[in-house]
Amino acid sequence: MLPNPSGVHFLSAHAVIRQLIRSSGVGPGDLVIDFGAGPGTLTAPLAATGSRILAIERDPAFVRKLNRRFADQPLVKVVHADLRTVPLPSRDFSVVASIPYAVSTVLLRRLLSRPRRSLVGADLVVEWGFARRIVAARTTETAKWAAKYELRIARRIPANCFRPAPRVDSAHLVIRRR
């Protein structure tokens, strides 16, 4: 395996991408956030649903590419920001994203611990072990999340579905507001 100093792994399996979008159930008029949008691998098929998309990306090179790629698509707004600090919408929204493993816990805390329950649902690609811990954990924090949201693993996503491949498999984590 070649070294990957950036730690960035892009989901490249079209069948997995289609399944994420289908599972999310998003459609015209919905507000959807793609955290860590990268080159727009999920942003483009999300835009095809007629949803309004916020493509959140912190890397300036990807932000420039996203702005060029989606310049003629009024339903896609590219936001140059860090997913750990970007303001979240106050209206109902969904998340469909393949998020960086290193910020999975931070993002879940931001999404699931908010006093206002504006998160409708999320279909996230996360590290396999992380997903298993989240759905099985019985901590005070995860108990609070489980009271407001259903959390389940839809499927395991093999490492070879990414370019470059990470060292571990991923999971399609489904979160739905109760």
TrEMBL record:
<keyword id="KW-0489">Methyltransferase</keyword>
<feature type="binding site">
    <location>
        <position position="9"/>
    </location>
    <ligand>
        <name>S-adenosyl-L-methionine</name>
    </ligand>
</feature>
<dbReference type="InterPro" id="IPR020596">
    <property type="entry name" value="rRNA_Ade_Mease_Trfase_CS"/>
</dbReference>
<feature type="binding site">
    <location>
        <position position="82"/>
    </location>
    <ligand>
        <name>S-adenosyl-L-methionine</name>
    </ligand>
</feature>
<keyword id="KW-0808">Transferase</keyword>
<protein>
    <submittedName>
        <fullName>Ribosomal RNA adenine dimethylase</fullName>
    </submittedName>
</protein>
<dbReference type="InterPro" id="IPR020598">
    <property type="entry name" value="rRNA_Ade_methylase_Trfase_N"/>
</dbReference>
<keyword id="KW-0949">S-adenosyl-L-methionine</keyword>
<dbReference type="GO" id="GO:0000179">
    <property type="term" value="F:rRNA (adenine-N6,N6-)-dimethyltransferase activity"/>
</dbReference>
<dbReference type="InterPro" id="IPR029063">
    <property type="entry name" value="SAM-dependent_MTases_sf"/>
</dbReference>
<feature type="binding site">
    <location>
        <position position="11"/>
    </location>
    <ligand>
        <name>S-adenosyl-L-methionine</name>
    </ligand>
</feature>
<feature type="domain" description="Ribosomal RNA adenine methylase transferase N-terminal">
    <location>
        <begin position="16"/>
        <end position="178"/>
    </location>
</feature>
<dbReference type="GO" id="GO:0003723">
    <property type="term" value="F:RNA binding"/>
</dbReference>
<dbReference type="Pfam" id="PF00398">
    <property type="entry name" value="RrnaAD"/>
</dbReference>
<comment type="similarity">
    <text>Belongs to the class I-like SAM-binding methyltransferase superfamily. rRNA adenine N(6)-methyltransferase family.</text>
</comment>
<feature type="binding site">
    <location>
        <position position="36"/>
    </location>
    <ligand>
        <name>S-adenosyl-L-methionine</name>
    </ligand>
</feature>
<feature type="binding site">
    <location>
        <position position="98"/>
    </location>
    <ligand>
        <name>S-adenosyl-L-methionine</name>
    </ligand>
</feature>
<keyword id="KW-0694">RNA-binding</keyword>
<dbReference type="InterPro" id="IPR001737">
    <property type="entry name" value="KsgA/Erm"/>
</dbReference>
<feature type="binding site">
    <location>
        <position position="57"/>
    </location>
    <ligand>
        <name>S-adenosyl-L-methionine</name>
    </ligand>
</feature>
